[in-house]
């Protein structure tokens, strides 16, 4: 028997399930909103803590550092100019000798005999020429005979002079004043005028040269500083140079640039500057390695920035971070022009009163806020640079 309620039962069940699903979705939404409302809001990042240096313009010396080697002012190799047996040595090795001091004696007997014979020949030729001069007037001898006799007289004079020079060369003397080295030949040895080995060497140590190797671009920069109208290059062409020895200690006496090579080595691109230094105590010896600091010029109204504050961008251009008035970090590109101690000399990009970030740079980002913890004045650092300049 058909009942109308039987057909409606499934429809009622479906409505019940639909209302249940709707209630579940609403409950889930309420729970989700409740959970979101309970989460705390994200905090803004704290400003990076940094140290800054306040920039103050100063007149700063431009120093250029180079490596170099010392070389003797004069070197004289003592070599024999005549052949013979070495009879005697008149010096002690390693002492100072004076110009003209006799160092060696070669056996002079053969050269003394040659000189005596030349003197005798000169007397004979001179007497004959004078006799012919009297006889030519009486036409006893011809003018040609008289002229030949006069020529023989002059030739004999030249032979005497040559013999005397060879006799003097048996005494080997020092051509310069300086420190003499070890003797490479002993008494009794046969020496010759064309031998390859020198008997000894005399070296002048005071003053002494320092040869400085530098690249061609460094030389251009140095010369540009010396000719710039806004720079001071010292007194005339006397550019001061300071030395640091191999043990790291400074050489107390300052020198000056002497000259620059006119050629650049095409293989290395290097050229040589030569400085001259007083060396009264003979502390500097030829061949020593030294570091030379050339006081090229003075940069006017420049800034001294610690080396760790200088950064490089992708193009290797230098820049610093400066704290703006609103407390944010600003990237400022600068121009470097030499160094002074552990700081760079900045000639462009900064202004008086700029606060340059020196520490805490790893957390700094352009435009981000920073918290300044310590402020140091550039005047103190510049006073140190000024003291180094003097």
UniProtKB/TrEMBL annotation:
Residues 109-164 form the Multidrug resistance protein MdtA-like alpha-helical hairpin domain. It is found in: Cell envelope. Residues 1-37 form the signal peptide. Keywords: Signal. InterPro entries: MdtA-like_b-barrel (IPR058626), MdtA-like_BSH (IPR058625), MdtA-like_C (IPR058627), MdtA-like_HH (IPR058624), RND_pump_MFP (IPR006143). Gene3D superfamilies: 2.40.30.170, 2.40.420.20, 2.40.50.100, Helix hairpin bin. Residues 74-202 form the Multidrug resistance protein MdtA-like barrel-sandwich hybrid domain. Belongs to the membrane fusion protein (MFP) (TC 8.A.1) family. This is Efflux RND transporter periplasmic adaptor subunit. It comes from Novosphingobium decolorationis.
């Amino acid at each position: 028997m058909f009942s109308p309620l039987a057909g409606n039962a499934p429809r009622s069940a479906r409505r019940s399930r639909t209302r249940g699903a709707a209630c579940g979705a609403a409950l889930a939404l309420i729970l989700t909103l409740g959970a979101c409302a309970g989460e705390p809001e994200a905090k803004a990042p704290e400003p990076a803590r940094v140290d800054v240096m306040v920039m103050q313009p100063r007149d700063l010396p431009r120093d250029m550092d180079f490596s170099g080697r010392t070389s003797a002012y004069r070197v004289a190799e003592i070599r024999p100019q005549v052949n013979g047996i070495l009879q005697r040595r008149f010096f002690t090795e390693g002492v100072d000798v004076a110009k003209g001091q006799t160092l060696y004696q070669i056996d002079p007997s053969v050269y003394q005999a040659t000189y005596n014979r030349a003197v005798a020949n000169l007397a004979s030729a001179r007497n004959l020429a004078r006799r012919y001069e009297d006889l030519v007037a009486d036409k006893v001898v011809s003018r040609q005979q008289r002229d030949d006799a006069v020529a023989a007289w002059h030739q004999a004079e030249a032979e005497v002079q040559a013999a005397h020079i060879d006799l003097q060369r048996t005494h080997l003397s020092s051509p310069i004043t300086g420190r003499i080295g070890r003797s490479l030949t002993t008494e009794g040895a046969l020496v010759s005028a064309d031998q390859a080995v020198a008997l000894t060497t005399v070296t002048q140590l005071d003053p002494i040269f320092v040869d400085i190797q530098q690249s061609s671009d460094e030389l251009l920069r140095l010369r540009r500083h010396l000719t710039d109208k806004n720079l001071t290059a010292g007194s005339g062409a006397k550019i001061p140079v300071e030395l640091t020895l191999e043990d790291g200690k400074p050489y107390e006496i300052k020198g000056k640039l002497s000259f620059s090579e006119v050629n650049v080595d095409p293989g290395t691109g290097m050229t040589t500057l030569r400085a001259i230094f007083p060396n009264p105590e003979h502390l500097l010896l030829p061949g020593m390695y030294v570091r030379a600091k050339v006081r090229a010029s003075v940069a006017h109204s420049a800034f001294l920035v610690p080396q760790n504050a200088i950064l490089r961008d992708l193009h290797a251009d230098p820049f610093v971070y400066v704290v703006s008035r609103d407390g944010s970090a600003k990237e400022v590109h600068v121009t470097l022009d030499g160094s002074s101690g552990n700081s760079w000399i900045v000639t462009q990009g900064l202004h008086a009163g700029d606060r340059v970030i020196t520490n805490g740079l790893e957390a700094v980002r352009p435009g981000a806020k920073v918290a300044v913890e310590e402020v140091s004045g550039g005047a103190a650092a510049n006073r140190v640079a000024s003291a180094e300049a003097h």
